[in-house]
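User: Can you predict the 3D structure for this chain?
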Amino acid sequence: MTQRFPLFLAGQRHITGAWLAVHDKWTGEVVAEVARADAATVARALAAVHAARPAMAALSAHERIAILHRCAAAARVRSEELARILVAEVGKPVRDARGEVARMADTFTVAAAEVQHLGGELMPLDLSARSQGYTGIWRRVPVGATALITPFNFPLNLAAHKVAPAIAAGCPFVLKPASTTPRSALVLGEILEESGLPPHAFSILPCDAATAAPLVEDDRVALLSFTGSPAVGWELKRRAGRKRITLELGGNAGCIVDEGADLDRAVQRLTLGIHGQSGQSCISVQRVFAHESLYGELRERLVAASRALGVGDPRDENTTVGPLISVADAERLERWVQAAVRAGGQVLCGGRRAGAVLEPTLLEQVPEDQPLCAEEAFGPIAVLAPFRDFAAALAAVNRSRFGLQAGVFTRSLPHALAAWRTLEVGGVVVNDSPTFRADAMPYGGVKESGFGREGPRAAIEEMTEQRLLVLHDPWPEPPHAPGP
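Assistant: Here is the predicted structure, written as structure tokens:
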């Protein structure tokens, strides 16, 4: 019999009577069922998280730090269990799954370290005669209840990037995981259950988008943090009302390989940047622009490296490219490849699909208006193109409606600085692929990639606000002591 798992309502395990099936993305079999939240459960979770605001805000710094460290320690203890869950419910290759669990633990640890920065500032206000005798002091305080919506591709670490800052900031939260990958979030709930959080401080609610609507629309939620598709994200912003909102909406990352770049490193890092995590990353490399002097060699070496990758069963230690989240997504990319070929594109390697698995795929001569260039592919696929002038390559990267991260392989400091100055993205990565992310760094995009930043320090700032204290000295100057 398939094992069933409760959701978390107001910090406690809860069965609703309705169940959501979790499928193994490689075999297709049902590997678990999780309790599915209904409208009444969501309503109760919102009331609980609203009521928990004072208790969460009252947590001392050392208590928040201890809670975060307990979460990190528990994740490390359960690391192999968590990795195996990711392999099943995401179809993530096991080596990548282990890496995600390690990053999840690191994210909680980094958030604990950031608690010490939640200070404030003493402000002299007597900068004019009218404010003589006044002093200002501000501190950061939690915004209140938060709603956190996470996607399927990194269901543990992207949840950690919302949950850990919420704890560090002192904000109670409701987490809605993706319906295709809810099991890992519920293990996170088991960890939170033993962490020392105040009663009712969190809920984890697997449910469909319609049921989750109050998390977006209810005014008791002070902040909504969403990671997912642009179409959904911008619609949520429209519905969110007065609450704060942060959006991380993906991209089609471009990477430039400059004249004279280290080709050994570029090939190694681009191969993983394109095909690692089966390409299901918001910062997966999708567009590669290489200087004409090295384009031919780079193309040849990337094709060879892509063909050498292990493809198939995500439980195999040698697999780099496993199944996509669904057969429909693999079929979509297959159609995009076919459309690119009809438009004049050339397939260099891959392009074939077996069920939910798409071979590591590279193309060239693809027009920029094709979906493989203009949209987010979210699979193990990239388009190559040569350039002659570095400024033209920068302009090509910018000809995208997305702007999350971009990469530049170069030995030229002026070119690196020009890229940082010119590229319309949230982050520029030099001498690595744009798929690089350290969990401490600020992370987010511009244009249709969203706004606001994640990374513990940046997210804590989003989840807190300044509160000012103004002091007036009402006491007269003491009389001067009489002279001798």
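The chain has 16 helices and 27 strands. The first strand starts at residue 4 and ends at 5.
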